[in-house]
TrEMBL record:
Ranges annotated as spanning the membrane: 12-33
The protein, known as: DUF2771 domain-containing protein
Keywords linked to the UniProt accession: Membrane, Transmembrane, Transmembrane helix
Tree of life domain: Bacteria
Length: 165
């Protein structure tokens, strides 16, 4: 079957038009993706049937050259005796990090610190203490930087805060 010259021209024009539209679409898509703001790593917190996304209150590059301090303290109710479950992004779980849990108990405020090695945990549960009964007031997750102070302690490059009371 042989196509008439007019049909060949129409098909060639249509093919060229589709190619131009496709190239334009991908060029616009590339510019939008290239210029978009990078998303900061977020922690997912879950307790008593509710889940929230926790953005960092502070997030810096490893050497503290570029920082963002746009986040705020997240709030999630955690009744006494129920756990707070945290799911961590790889940017956090693949690095050494520390978790600080603050409790209000019969002897006043108590802060419990737990350190984690790279890859040790991608999720953790923070339990409300029941003996003696203590209410979990909040959790702070810290990611250290490569910059240290005069005592050799690292400055924090990222912090996630969750108020649970």
């Amino acid at each position: 079957m042989r196509l008439q010259p007019k049909t060949v021209k129409i098909l060639a024009l249509l093919g060229t038009g589709v190619l131009v539209v496709a190239v334009a679409f991908f060029a616009v898509l590339f510019v939008l993706v290239k210029d978009s703001d990078p998303r900061l790593p977020a922690v997912t917190a879950y307790a008593y049937g509710e889940a929230i996304t926790v953005e960092p209150t502070r997030y810096c590059e490893l050497d503290l050259t570029e920082c963002s301090e746009e986040g705020s303290i997240a709030k999630l109710q955690v009744p006494v005796g129920y756990p707070l479950q945290l799911s961590l992004p790889t940017e956090l779980s693949d690095a050494p990090w520390r978790l600080y849990a603050t409790y209000d108990g019969p002897n006043g405020l108590e802060i419990v610190e737990q350190g984690y090695r790279p890859g040790q945990a991608t999720a953790v549960s923070v339990r409300s203490k029941t003996t003696p009964e203590a209410k979990l007031l909040g959790v702070e997750i810290r990611l250290p930087s490569s910059v240290v102070d005069e005592n050799g302690d690292p400055f924090q490059r990222a912090v996630w805060l969750i108020e649970t009371a």
